[in-house]
Write the structure tokens for this entry.
Amino acid sequence: MSEQQALAETPAISEQLIELAKRRGYFFAASEIYGGVGGFYTFGPQGAALKGNVEDAWRDRFALEEGNMEIDAPTIMPEPVFESSGHLEGFDDMLIECSECGESTRADHLVEDNTGIEEAEGLPIEEVEEIVAEHELACPACGAGLAGVAIDDFNLMFATNIGPGDSQPGYLRPETAQGIFVEFPRLKEYARNTLPFGVTQIGRAYRNEISPRRSIIRTREFTQAELEFFIDPDADEPVLSDVEDVPVTLYPVTEQQKDDGEYVETTIGEAVESGTIADPWIGYFLGITQEWYATIGVDMGRFRFRQHLAGERAHYASDCWDAESEIDGNWIEIAGFAHRGDYDLSKHAEGSGERFTVFRQYDEPKTVEQATVDPDMSYLGPEFGGEAGTVVDGLEALAQTDRSAFEGETVAVDAGGDTHEIPVTKTGFEVTEETVAGEHIVPEVIEPSFGVDRLVYTLLHHAYREDEVDGEARTYLALEPEVAPTFAGVFPLQSDAELEATATEIAGELRAAGHSVTYDDSGNIGRRYRRQDEVGTPFCVTVDYESLEDDAVTVRERDTTGQKRLAIDDLAETLTALRAGEVAFEDLEG
Ligand code: GAP
């Protein structure tokens, strides 16, 4: 399947979906009474429940089932965190500001939207300026030409002051990951200093996006679910056999670089074996992600894993893949999988002076030669004065890296910008043998990073259906029962005290059994079904006059509108089994 084929197949429904989301309480622009502000959304009752269910499902799969820890760190962090992480220096987007109307636009998006050039994000600023001029691109707000307008780097972090005054700057975290990295020295203790181990976090991240767009796809405050998985690169391997047969659609760099690039339909096992996925850990996480997305309702016919082009990769990543879902003919990144190496831990070790290492125990103790110096300070002191300490550091470093330097009568040491010749007899150079049980290593990190809002949007998009029931047009959301915000609607057939009392009692029992239930007695039964269909409620339970005689109710399934008569006594248990996927509705007796 080529990229173009995949994009052409699905009709655009964002407009209808966004209207439904607002009307039915999925999500809507925040603070609208004061005019609202771009990039902030409120999840309404249905949306908050759907998002919560998605987060719970993610926690079950990526924290609990994988045996990883979960933490909950602050969203505001002090400046040194982001000096070390590189965000202060390089977490920028390209900003072009219209000289006529002052509108700010993301220059790479302007290029992508108007030239057919894909992935302009990785291009150097000068090249983007040239493209803007060459294609005579104009301001999206007022239409004024932007040729010749300088593009600036714009840092995406929201800055704040911690406490009164401005002596302690802080930032709203742009990714949950940093909250995990900075706590590594403590977290490794909880993991009993044993690699590999993983730490997860689900929480808010903030980015002052230049042009937030496409509803909840690009916002300024959003939720991430991230896993930082710490490994010893020389010793740890994933259990690939768990995912080797998982089928995946891959779009590797080699195919993206061709004019008629094709997707690679393969399995995780084959992709790792052939080197298409270079790192087995990345392969492992792509495998479990593919399976998890399918269970919660991502349409796997509208999904792919795309490898990052070299210019696109984050400053820390050696290999990176995105999970992408198709929405209205566009591919949207819903998760990223990066091999971050030891970048983050090394940077925070350097910045904080703390230990970010784990002890790697050898299978057998090893005898190693140790080269040391014990300089004669009564010589170095008078000879070098204030520089003596630097000379000692130089000698120590040289003993570690180049023992042969000590073989002659003098040794040459670089210190304070000069090279000094020191008599070897004054260095106390010695090589001794030592038995060591292991060594301290800085772990490497594999990071699956999920955007929850984009996933919620994908689930809604991929679940959106229009059909006809009894000659009437119907819109419904075919959400998976595991994540559907409301699991069952319970209705009395008519306004009748006895029916209402029984229906209320059933609703209470189902809630006590852990189901999210809505009770609805307004309007005719057909309208109540339509309301629940529109929010994606998988089952509706109707109490009628017969129920008072036979202790049974009519249960209707959303997608097929099929109905079964089920005993009230078994109802909670049957619905629990349906939710867990242990039985299929069509297989139920009734
Ligand atoms: N720690 C790695 C990291 O943050 P990222 O690719 O920048 O990587 C991870 O973000 C995920 O967060 C993305 O795949 C996307 O789903 C989501 N995300 C990023 N920026 C977003 C935004 N402005 N609005 C909504 N979701 C966003």
